[in-house]
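If your schedule permits, I should be very grateful for your opinion on a structural question. Thank you for your consideration; the sequence and its tokens are set out here:

===
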Amino acid sequence: MPNLSDTLTILSAMFTPAVLVSACGSLILTTSQRLSRSIERQRDVAKQLRHQQRHAAAPDPAEHTHLRLQLSFAARRARLLQQSMTILHLTLAVFIASICTIGIFELVNSSATWIIAVLSVLGSGLLLYASVLLIRESRLALSDVAEETTYLTKPE
């Protein structure tokens, strides 16, 4: 039977990935909200484009181009956010697996700690990749806003 010190060491080892699980959960929540807003934006622009095509006697070519560009931005953002969500869920699974592995290895007194190291590095790498995707999406969102601002503020 392990003593208190050994038990606290095990719990401490399991706590570190748990913090990363919490961070992943927060990123998943905010990314999910961003994805929902991006999809809403895409649907709104598509609706405006359809309305313009159906109801305008002579559609404004500049507005048509602008709406198509806005639709393209929204679709690209949604793809990046969906990829980020997938990677974040994989990351979450890897960190949970590392917590379980730590606990199991301590219970069976295994010395195959390299598995825990591999899971930790894999989880960190996935988290880094998800962050890069989110940075790309943020930059795309900024380009989208800049294009829309330029269109709306151009002299007539």
Remarks:
- The mean pLDDT is 88.
- Residues 4-39+79-153 form one domain.
